[in-house]
Amino acid sequence: MMEQKPISQAIIKRLPRYYRYLGELIAQGVERISSNEFSKLMGVTASQIRQDLNNFGGFGQQGYGYNVKNLYMEIGKILGIDRVHNIVVIGAGNFGRALAGYSDFERRGFRIKALFDRDPKKVGTDINGIEVYPIDQVQDYIRKNNIEIVALTVPKDAAIALAQTLVGTGIKGIWNFAHTDLRVPKDIIVENVHLSESLMRLSYNIVHRDKVLK
Amino acid sequence: MMEQKPISQAIIKRLPRYYRYLGELIAQGVERISSNEFSKLMGVTASQIRQDLNNFGGFGQQGYGYNVKNLYMEIGKILGIDRVHNIVVIGAGNFGRALAGYSDFERRGFRIKALFDRDPKKVGTDINGIEVYPIDQVQDYIRKNNIEIVALTVPKDAAIALAQTLVGTGIKGIWNFAHTDLRVPKDIIVENVHLSESLMRLSYNIVHRDKVLK
């Protein structure tokens, strides 16, 4: 499939949600769905869905709706999850362990290959069959094992220092759980999971909910 | 402070980041900052910052810039984190334990009071001093302890069922880590942390990075 124009990050944010709903429809045995039904299910307008999918060449057929399995696979391709991405997790604390224990990622083509920690007591243990290695082996491991993504689940200062040591190893992305912005060259994509900020948005929307609901 | 008009979710998404940078400036002993310096630091345009803050009445003074501490406190008020929010976590697995162990939340006015789990082996244990209670006591606990927010760190199907049992307990928000959308009355605010979707956005931006970088 060819893409004509650059896709906005707003659309990219919505695509995984389409993918999730389509996966659920497949699990329920639904083979096709009209743009209106799909819109009702997802709580967005049918025209929004059509506009979003038109960025990738459409997929809908007039009077037929969407072929669920086909659309699911095409969106999977667009998201790049039709192939495996190898991941290592730095930080074998609770968050690192939670990521390693979460089998749902693997189902979507993400494979956590190893964890790294600076605590000698954690090194050599395993989480869900995934081994914990000493932190000073991480660059070498990345180079030898075709690792694309590093998940950083370490405190802020450690994350900033570690991100610098990862530059030049060939990684393509950092999944950053530290409460800071990382400064790395542009060819390393950073995706932030800032939990404190998520909690502050929740707080805002609670405190101002009369206004939010209007 | 009075707010005139409804604030867009896009601005609400940016406010916690302003708050984080201002907190770091305070830690560094910076007392005031020009709109241009602040803009450079945050990597957004000065006019974006001015526009965002104008929604709340400004704060900047011509030729002086922003008073860092004042702006920090005002944004804290807007975000509703100038007062304590009591939280319980349902699910004492790795994610629940990670949340309970994360002291940074407390610093920001969020206080995790208890965990709940259906596993009798976990009940009665504690994480970071926070006790694990049986899941069937959660409604009662919420009512008696002025709990505003429930963090759901349980699998999808359990999350959907649990969300229904929380309606009417008086909670104001659900911090949802389950990979599903929850359907609850509008007066309960749901803030989703969908990690799989975050990972898919990272995958998209890696696979299409030549286009993304252009």
Structure description:
With 214 residues, chain A is of the alpha/beta class. Chain A has two domains: 9-78, Winged helix-like DNA-binding domain superfamily/Winged helix DNA-binding domain (Arc Repressor Mutant, subunit A, Orthogonal Bundle), CATH 1.10.10; 85-197, 3-Layer(aba) Sandwich (Rossmann fold). Helices cover 44% and strands 17% of the residues of chain A. The first copy, chain A, contains ten helices and nine strands. Chain A has helices spanning 9-27, 35-42, 46-54, 68-78, 94-100, 104-107, 138-144, 156-166, 195-207, 209-213, and strands at 32-33, 66-67, 85-90, 110-117, 126-127, 130-134, 149-152, 173-176, 189-192. In chain A, the strands form two sheets. A seven-stranded mixed β-sheet of chain A has the order 5-6-4-3-7-8-9. A two-stranded antiparallel sheet of chain A has the order 1-2. In chain A, strand 7, helix 8 (156-166) and strand 8 (173-176) form a beta-alpha-beta unit. In chain A, helix 1 runs antiparallel to helix 4 (68-78) and helix 2 (35-42) crosses helix 3. Chain A is globular and about 60 Å long. The mean pLDDT of chain A is 89. Chains A and B meet through helix 1, helix 5, helix 9 and helix 10 of A and helix 1, helix 5, helix 9 and helix 10 of B.
